[in-house]
């Protein structure tokens, strides 16, 4: 059973609100500096075909439309009302709207929860009215909405083109920036925009669900500063990414940025890397830079997904072929190794000085015959070793640069590329240095739905997103045993009792209890014995024999065992054990005279290997999250760790191990043998299932686990108990 | 004495060649598809005012200009000839040109060294003629040149605007791309472009020197795939960066890219990171992405350098303030901490909901008064804690977005920003989401020489480049003892003898000899003793006393001592020493029965500390280079190392230590004390001076050096001797 269940049950109520048959503009105005004027202009100029009800007690007509003195006075029942009036008027207006049959209101005013206790009280009053009258709220403190396929443009933004990119943005400036970029690009259009504002009622998760359902939206694009219910967001994202691409830009990637963000919205921004890992786990395309948002959304919307990461590059200049190769490698993509057949076919049509090894550099072959580039693209697209094709160079500009007489050939090349894009299931990504000029051949490609990029960097980001999406969807579509969650575990009564006892005693699990929990669920733990008295050591020594042993104090009161002198290592023989026992008792007593000491844990010294760490937290935003990383400085200094939402699939666990920058260490660096990755993957999956089975478990820390070429050793284990969580719950 | 000496001695001969009074176009043509036509059009349409001599035996007139049957037939003495004819004609034409007084030729033809042995022979023949006749060569295999301030445009590129950015690019497509980008930007113009081609005669270093001297060039911009004489390039770069900014984009940043590059030009691309470190050492502004070249060159050309890395951000939207903060942190810049006075002054003019903590978010305060942003910029520019100012948001678009009536106020704001930029010595970097639209206020800023960026990412790259350049120049301008090279060292006769002996014996220095070399020049090395016989150990044991000792074999034939069983650790007492001696002798004999074994080296075990590595190579491209990094996985897996050209200044050594990603480890991670950075800096400087003093030293490896809170221990030292290098040379 999978706790992230949330299928799209009912159709989102936002469809009615965002495609209303009538709109009331409360605070409509004839003063061009007012939002109540702008909104009216947006609706009228935008050609909104429903009823417009300007509400303004002081006007008869606004921009030629009959005005009404109040919402109550409106004759019809507009589904949507835009409130342009001050915060204090909002609760009363919502009640009035509700009585008039308004289903949703967009509230522009600020002055609510974001300003302090007084505003928060007003926000509560607003919400109470909304609930009482069945009115849904977008905002308050929102920049507004548009829905271009219904000619609704409450922001009155000029030059917006209807299209298939839906946007939710916590920053109004970001929306403006995307709109201007799209205008400039000339190709990209938008479906719906929503500024979520304070999200008092409707939040990110609902908006994403709406964009998922909206048939005019092909790509959902989100600018996010922080999530509230991150786990729910992941649920919705999983459903939506199965249907269409979801592009997220998350700000606050650095500590400095996080501080700036929290002073802005007060949102709990959380750890950037964790957020990104979890979003990607559920198929979201995360972009790193704000200027990548639109190029990536455009590419994901227009192009086929790639089956993998092997890219063939066709270039008409060696320099840009090199640059493309650099960027591909940085983005985690590979240069496809072309088959001998492909190279032969290329050689047959290219000049001798051309390089037919990927990146293919035609080296002048296309100077008087630009359509040759389309032939090259076809050859590599037909190669089974290739997942996607990148064209790099001056295509579209041959007739400008060399001779006008080339225009015909260049247009035939464009036509051939269009044909190829229809014939192949591999994406064709085109970078042209003539993109800003938009010559005829590029316009033709544009018209046929092939995006043209003006930056190699952006073209490569698109290829990476297409490859990641392809691999993600391929996993999702695999049969259950591979792609889906692992089978769940049932909690064991004896272990529930251990949790219950710990909870009653107000403590966490003792180390041996934690290890018993692991062992109970099939995780290999080192043999170990608890000695309560010094005299127990004789039998223990006999059992282990003459091998080096470690001894650790067992005490609910001593968290940092080493600091208390509670750990002795490399003990061989009975005498050494006895002496260590005495020393541990003495120094732990010195450390904390009141500590209750249960005894000591004796275990064989772990062999040398690669230190890894597995941690689990129940994140307030995202719920249970598993972290995996290499030990020591890798975690603490380099922050080279991977996060996944629990439960993990096998694919997730595989990816966690592969994702680490230092994975070369796992694979056997410096002449050492590599570790048993399969055993680690298995361990991660079992930990994930234990966390699911025991809601009493609040945090878990296996640190270190020593990984070997043949398995692993869990050297230390800590389990923190959820306070007050009863074990009798299922 | 500083081996990087190369001051600009004489004026570059390129000035005459690139600003000629007459130009011969050999292979001039009336066929629009030929380069010989394009070049004629470029000269005529470009308004070249000198004499044009088309050379074509079959034409009387070309494009209305009298043609000549051969170079010899030309009546005047053009300084420059463009050869558009095939490779085979080139040597003969050069001789003819030389006789006619031509100083330089631009050779477009390919088919020389880049194609194989036959072409290489032709290239040699060409060079012989050039030397015999005193003709300098640009190319062959070049895309051409332009010099817009002299109306010379041999590429016949349209829409080029004269300006102050000079370009040398190994990729013709890159030049085209920059030209189209500049055309689109509308503000940026170029001085000279040179395609270096095969660099058979004139190379990168000469072109950079020329751009440094050229008074029409304010910024030298280079696209480089690989260097030939990298050390000479660094010399020239040091001279040029003292006068004007030098921007370099180096391709081949990844292994994949390097492979692509070498199949393209056959240039030795070297390690990307080393190249970048060395370029930065000499003040070059290295950009990481090709689409940053023009924005950074524009910013460095127009704006003042920044005194440091503390940036004040003024934003009219919280989202973009956060994005800017993220990017600043990633670029190694800091958010300046504004003084209380500044924050008070800001509070006085902003709405209560504004954030006056950097990033300053005016939060609506400028909605009806955009000129307020200029006031905010002035306040933070006057703050001593601030080195540069970044404006982020929609300035320029207020009158478009809110109300036309704001245009006057917005223009006053632009005027105030222009005044501020003239009054302050701090750079003002402006990002506007309206940059692509170029509204009047932004056009005004543009006219006044303030660049406007359409991407936050690019704006931040410019700030980083301005800060780096400012810090670099400040160091250069410091008095000798701080900024300049450290005093040099003289070689010691006894050490020269050690090198000479090793050279004669065809071996490298033995470990104790290497350590003696270090000790001789003031580097602290652990006390150590060589035992030739087992009996020597008694006295050694007495001298060291009862502390743990390490023993290592001394043999010219055993490079990997551990592999040979030639290292024993943690030896305490005479018996242990004796036993270790026997074991080492036995296993080294087993390992290599023919190895000559000098004895063993006995030294105290090093205390635990932080492992670092210091290495020196004499790079074939860049000459002697010092590498510094943390030991073990940091070097081997993470490649977290810093490089500097020898000799190092103290500033260089400081920067090496600060530059490491893992420098937190040096500063005391995981509760450990930090190490003595000053001692490490001193060690780096001494190593640099030793390398200068001994040309016999080919490579050096101190691995590991253990760094402590109080000094360091050089645990192992290797010195490779330059074969055949006589010690009698100075």
TrEMBL record, chains A, B:
What are the CoA-binding domain coordinates in residue numbering?
Answer: 17-112
- Which Pfam families does the protein's record reference? ATP-grasp_5 (PF13549), CoA_binding_2 (PF13380), Succ_CoA_lig (PF13607)
Cite the SUPFAM superfamilies for this sequence: Glutathione synthetase ATP-binding domain-like, NAD(P)-binding Rossmann-fold domains, Succinyl-CoA synthetase domains
The alphabetical list of record keywords is: ATP-binding, Ligase, Nucleotide-binding
UniProt key word Isomerase: no
Task: Give the matching InterPro entries.
Answer: Acyl-CoA_Synth/Transferase (IPR051538), ATP_grasp_subdomain_1 (IPR013815), CoA-bd (IPR003781), NAD(P)-bd_dom_sf (IPR036291), Succ_CoA_lig_flav_dom (IPR032875), Succinyl-CoA_synth-like (IPR016102)
What GO annotations for molecular function exist for this entry? ATP binding; ligase activity
> Entry's PANTHER family?
3-HYDROXYPROPIONATE--COA LIGASE [ADP-FORMING], ACETATE--COA LIGASE [ADP-FORMING]
In Swiss-Prot or TrEMBL terms, this protein is called CoA-binding protein
Supply the source organism for this entry: Vreelandella rituensis
């Amino acid at each position: 059973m999978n706790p992230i269940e949330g299928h799209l049950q009912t159709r989102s109520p936002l469809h009615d609100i965002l495609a209303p048959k009538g709109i009331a503009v409360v605070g409509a105005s004839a003063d061009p500096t007012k939002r109540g004027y702008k909104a009216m202009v947006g609706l009228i100029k935008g050609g909104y075909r429903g009823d417009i009800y300007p509400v303004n007690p002081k006007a008869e007509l606004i921009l030629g439309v009959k005005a009404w003195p109040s919402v109550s006075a409106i004759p019809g029942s507009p589904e949507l009302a835009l409130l342009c009036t001050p915060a204090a008027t909002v609760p009363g207006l919502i009640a009035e709207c509700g009585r008039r049959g308004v289903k949703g209101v967009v509230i522009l005013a600020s002055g609510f929860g974001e300003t302090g206790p007084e505003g928060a009280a007003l926000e509560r009053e607003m919400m109470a009215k909304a609930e009482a009258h069945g009115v849904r709220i977008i905002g308050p403190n929102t920049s507004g909405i548009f829905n271009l396929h219904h000619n609704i443009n409450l922001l009155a933004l000029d030059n917006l083109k209807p299209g298939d990119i839906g946007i939710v943005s916590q920053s109004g400036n970001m929306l403006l920036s995307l709109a201007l970029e799209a205008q400039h690009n000339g190709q990209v259009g938008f479906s719906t925009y929503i500024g979520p504002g304070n999200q008092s009622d409707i939040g990110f998760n609902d908006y994403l669900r709406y964009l998922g359902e909206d048939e005019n939206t092909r790509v959902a694009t989100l600018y996010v500063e922080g999530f509230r219910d991150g786990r729910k967001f992941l649920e919705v994202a999983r459903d939506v990414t199965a249907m269409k691409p979801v592009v997220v830009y998350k700000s606050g990637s650095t500590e400095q940025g996080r501080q700036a963000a929290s002073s802005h919205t007060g949102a709990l921004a959380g750890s950037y890397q964790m957020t990104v890992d979890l979003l990607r786990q559920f198929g979201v395309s995360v972009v790193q830079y704000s200027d990548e948002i639109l190029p990536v959304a455009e590419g994901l919307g227009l192009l086929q997904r790639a089956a993998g990461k092997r890219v063939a590059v066709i270039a008409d200049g060696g320099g840009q072929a090199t640059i493309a190769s650099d960027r591909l490698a940085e983005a985690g993509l590979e240069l496809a190794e072309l088959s001998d057949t492909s190279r032969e076919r290329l050689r047959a049509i290219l000049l001798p000085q051309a390089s037919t090894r990927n990146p293919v550099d035609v080296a002048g072959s296309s100077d008087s015959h630009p359509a040759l580039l389309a032939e090259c693209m076809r050859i590599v697209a037909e190669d089974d070793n290739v997942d996607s094709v990148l064209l790099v160079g001056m295509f579209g500009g041959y007739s400008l640069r060399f001779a006008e007489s080339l225009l015909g050939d260049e247009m035939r090349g464009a036509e051939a590329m269009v044909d190829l894009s229809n014939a192949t299931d591999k994406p064709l990504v085109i970078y042209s240095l003539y993109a800003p000029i938009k010559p005829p051949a590029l316009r033709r490609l544009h018209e046929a739905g092939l995006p043209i990029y003006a930056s190699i960097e952006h073209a490569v980001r698109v290829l990476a997103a297409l490859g990641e999406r392809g691999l993600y969807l391929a996993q999702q579509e695999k049969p259950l045993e591979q792609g889906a969650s692992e089978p769940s575990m049932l909690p064991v009564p004896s272990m529930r009792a251990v949790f219950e006892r710990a909870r009653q005693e107000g403590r966490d699990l003792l180390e041996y209890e934690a290890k018993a929990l692991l062992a109970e669920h099939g995780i290999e733990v080192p043999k170990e014995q608890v000695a309560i008295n010094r005299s127990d050591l004789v039998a223990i020594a006999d059992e282990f024999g003459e091998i080096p042993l470690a001894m650790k104090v067992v005490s609910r009161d001593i968290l940092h065992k080493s600091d208390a002198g509670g750990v002795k290592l490399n003990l061989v023989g009975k005498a050494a054990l006895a002496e260590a026992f005495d020393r541990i008792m003495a120094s732990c007593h010195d450390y904390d005279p009141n500590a209750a000491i249960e005894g000591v844990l004796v275990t064989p010294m772990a062999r040398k290997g690669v230190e890894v760490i597995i941690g689990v937290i129940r994140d307030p935003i995202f719920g249970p999250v598993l972290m995996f990383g290499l030990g020591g400085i890798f975690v603490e200094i380099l922050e080279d760790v991977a996060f996944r939402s629990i439960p993990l699939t096998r694919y997730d666990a595989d990816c966690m191990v592969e994702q680490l920058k230092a994975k070369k260490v796992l694979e056997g660096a410096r002449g050492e043998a590599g570790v048993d990755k399969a055993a680690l993957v298995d361990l991660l999956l079992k930990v994930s299932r234990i966390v699911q089975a025991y809601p009493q478990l609040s945090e878990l820390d296996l640190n270190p686990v020593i990984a070997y070429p043949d398995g692993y050793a869990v050297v230390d284990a800590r389990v923190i108990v959820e306070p007050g969580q009863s074990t009798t719950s299922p």
